[in-house]
From TrEMBL:
InterPro entries: DUF1552, TAT_signal. It comes from Plesiocystis pacifica SIR-1. This is Tat (Twin-arginine translocation) pathway signal sequence domain protein. It holds the Pfam family HXXSHH. PROSITE patterns: TAT.
Length: 490
């Protein structure tokens, strides 16, 4: 047993460093076919000085993107539309302030939420509201080539990529996940960038994302499926030996059991326990990842969320972005909650017309349909928060409290695709960095381009620092105000 613990410690020292050479408390079990399964933090494997903080998990950020704005109070060519999204009042979030709004789907987590109003993007010349919102959303940058809409790219790195580049072990890329039809406006996945004019590809199939995270090659994954077994089974001998160690504390045992239960649940959710005659390859494992039916797309998103939760829990990454639908989500047909029918594609609904421009026939009750889409996104975001909250830590916190989950939008509202009032719903305080249980309004509602400052705040909450260990204030276009916002901080 001592030899095994020594081996795990050597693995942790060898593999568990970020780009700054800091230890990340990362260890692995090696099993059948060279499979490597990441372990959670264990007291028995920790250097002695770290044991007093055994519940500490390094901050992380998960970004969940929705297109087309939300159904909020506004005047349109079709008349005045009621408020269906934002709380009824600033200040403390209560069941009463979110009642009847899409945010009431998150009532069980109100104490963990920071609802940020009056987030405004810069009016960069993208010549298209969707391109301006989607490409600027995580970059706070304008276009490489102004005025050409979707024929340009963002002129800088996205915050999710920077978090991964600076904080992940060995600078490992952040996870970029996508659900919905391939292609479409802005080419499908369009929110993550390595740098100017350098868009990142996304993992589309949740099983491929899982395979990538677990370090399985195609043969190993096929063997796992053919054996109708779990990744846990592929490291069973090593796991049994580790679990029997008298050096493990009760907290260690609980963390290991939850960790491997979560792996099993993830595999079951993705349909991994296939029989040999069901080896329909990975594209069939999560059928809705490329679909235009909203229920199927959001089911695939939930599968991605299982991957994301496991990825941050075991230290694979400190940054994940999840995009739903193309640049204008112009293919997905979400469910009408009143009659279970499929509504028109979301972009049509956001325009309130049956067209991708202003020429189509009006869609009856389009504002109510838009609110139904918002509600389904709120339900899906709640699913992510639930997943992270299920990871309980020894200090009585849960995993969600250690990081931030950000549900944000490309636009403030449809049909105008406004750059103002961008929805920003944040769950988790990143270890006490951010305020919680409140709805706040930045800059007293003034039309201040503060979006870059918000991203610098979120990057700082996730752990980004300057060489002098100050909060970052250099992310986004240099012409913008990039100072972190104390109004968002605890």
């Amino acid at each position: 047993m001592t030899a095994l613990l020594d081996l795990l410690k050597r693995r942790a020292r060898h593999q568990g460093h970020n780009s700054r050479g800091q230890t990340t408390r990362r260890a692995f079990l090696a099993g059948l076919g060279g499979v490597a399964v990441g372990l959670p933090f264990l007291e028995a494997l920790a250097p002695r000085p770290a044991r007093a903080n055994s519940g500490d998990i390094e901050p992380f950020a998960i970004f969940f993107r929705q297109a087309n704005g939300v159904a909020c109070a506004q005047s349109t060519e079709f008349g005045d539309e009621p408020e269906s999204f934002w709380p009824t009042a600033l200040g403390a979030l209560t069941p009463e302030t979110v009642a009847g709004r899409s945010l009431d789907e998150l009532t069980g987590h109100l104490s963990r939420l920071l609802v940020v109003r009056n987030v405004n993007m810069e009016a960069f010349d993208f010549a298209d509201g969707h391109a301006r919102g989607a490409l600027q959303g995580l970059t706070a940058q304008g276009p490489v080539v102004p005025g050409v809409g979707g024929d340009s790219e963002a002129n800088g790195e996205s915050i999710d990529h920077r978090i991964g580049r600076e904080l992940n072990p060995e600078g490992r890329d952040s996870l970029v996940l996508y659900a919905g039809m391939s292609g479409g406006w802005l080419g499908g996945p369009c929110i993550a960038y390595r740098g100017p004019n350098n868009r990142r590809a996304a993992l589309h199939d949740p099983m491929l994302a899982y395979q990538t995270m677990m370090g399985l090659d195609g043969d190993q994954l096929e063997e796992l499926i053919a054996r109708q077994s779990s990744v846990n089974d592929m490291v069973k001998d090593q796991l049994d030996t580790l679990m029997s160690s008298p050096k493990l504390s009760s907290n260690d045992l609980q963390r290991l059991e939850l960790h491997f239960d979560s792996i099993r649940e993830l595999e079951n959710n993705l349909g991994c326990n296939f029989a040999e005659d069901e080896l329909a390859m990975l594209a069939g494992l999560s059928a809705g990842y490329e679909s235009n039916i909203g229920d199927e797309v959001l089911a695939a998103v939930r599968a991605h969320m299982h991957v994301a939760a496991l990825a941050v829990a075991c230290g694979y990454t400190r940054s994940v972005s999840i995009q739903v639908g193309s640049g204008n989500d112009g293919s997905t047909r979400y469910r009408n909650l009143d009659d279970d029918s499929l509504m028109e594609n979301f972009h049509y609904v956001s325009h309130r017309r049956a067209s991708h421009d202003s020429s189509g026939d009006p869609i009856p009750n389009a504002d109510k349909l838009h609110a139904m889409v918002d509600r389904q996104f709120a339900q899906t975001f709640n699913y992510l928060v639930d997943r992270l909250a299920a990871y309980e830590l020894p200090n009585a916190e849960s995993l969600v409290d250690c990081g931030t989950c950000v549900w944000y939008n490309d636009n403030g509202s449809g049909p105008g695709h406004s750059r103002r009032g961008i929805p920003m719903i944040i769950a988790g305080s990143a270890g006490g960095f951010l305020r919680q249980g409140e709805c706040i309004e930045l800059h007293e509602g003034d039309n201040v381009a503060n979006h870059a400052a918000v991203l610098n705040t979120l990057g700082s909450a996730a752990g980004l620092r300057t060489p002098s260990d100050e909060l970052i204030s250099d992310f986004g276009d240099a012409s913008l105000d990039r100072q972190p916002l104390t109004a968002m901080m605890a």
